[in-house]
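Saturday, quiet lab. Running sequence design on the structure tokens for the scaffold JK sent over.
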């Protein structure tokens, strides 16, 4: 049964042209579905917290599913759950449906085209929502991020978990220097760019990104009704789990947040 949802909202869709481009779909296309090691860590922490409070997940939302890389392993980790996968880009949704059929993983999975902020708990509350591969990075400006996290909060049972990753302002020296200079220019009123915002263009489509600090993400979760269970940079998480992390790595922030 298809999920009921609102039509994609053009106001929330600043990056749709980018994500809908065939080259974007191809970039995230995979032959074999998988999770990165740190995504398995986040999922393990979230599922343990959920089981303590709510039991086994019965409904899971996978937000920004793209061509579906993470859908089969999350489905396997939540065998009693209905999976609601969604993405803002119709081309990503079509690729996800094709892949799930080809991988033999379409049973119990509904895939729909919707911006995250328009998702509603039409089919009851979920125990788990994932926003992996930095979905929140691509949601600008800040008011959109508040709308998206508030909508995700409303999807969850109290005690349910949101798991995800975002781009981090502090990582390789060139990136850190860019954001330090941006912050200085904004503080000196030489620029009115919100610290953390970055524009890139691709095949004629502009992509708006937001790079976070840890403190900023903590404040955003507090404002939208989440209690943070884990929020670390990938470099720190790698050290904690005995994994090597390259100096050139993006050092993204990874999180598990529980709905209050
Ligand atoms: C970096 S890709 C990751 C795709 C997939 N999760 C993966 O890991 O391969 C980010 C995905 O988020 C989707 N996306 C971006 N903003 C979104 C929004 N506001 N609501 C729903 N999906 C969004 C994009 O269309 C894209 O498919």
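Result came back. Writing it out in full:
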């Amino acid at each position: 049964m298809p999920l009921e949802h609102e039509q994609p909202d053009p106001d929330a869709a600043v990056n749709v042209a980018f994500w809908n481009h065939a080259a974007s779909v191809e970039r995230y296309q995979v032959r074999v579905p998988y999770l990165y090691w740190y995504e398995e860590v986040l999922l393990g922490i979230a599922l343990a917290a959920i089981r303590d409070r709510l039991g086994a997940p019965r409904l899971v939302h996978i937000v920004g599913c793209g061509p579906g890389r993470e859908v089969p392993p999350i489905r396997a980790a939540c065998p009693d759950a209905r999976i609601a996968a969604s993405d803002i880009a119709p081309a990503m949704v079509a690729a996800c449906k094709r892949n799930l059929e080809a991988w033999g993983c379409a049973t119990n999975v509904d895939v729909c085209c919707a911006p995250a902020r328009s998702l509603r708990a039409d089919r009851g509350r979920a125990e788990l929502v994932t926003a992996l591969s930095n979905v929140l990075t691509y949601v600008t400006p800040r008011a959109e991020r508040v709308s998206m996290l508030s909508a995700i909060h409303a999807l969850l049972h109290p005690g349910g978990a949101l798991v995800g990753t975002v781009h981090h302002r502090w990582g390789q020296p060139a990136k850190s220097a860019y954001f330090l200079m941006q912050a200085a220019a904004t503080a000196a009123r030489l620029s009115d760019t919100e610290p953390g915002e970055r524009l890139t263009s691709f095949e004629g489509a502009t992509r708006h990104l937001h790079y976070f600090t840890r403190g900023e993400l903590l404040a955003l979760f507090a404002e939208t009704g989440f209690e943070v269970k884990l929020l670390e940079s990938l470099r720190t998480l790698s050290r904690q789990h005995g994994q090597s992390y390259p100096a050139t790595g993006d050092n993204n922030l990874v999180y598990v947040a529980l709905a209050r």
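Notes for JK: The longest helix spans residues 37-54. Residues 10-259 form a domain with the Rossmann fold fold (CATH 3.40.50.150). Ask whether to fix the surface positions before the next round.
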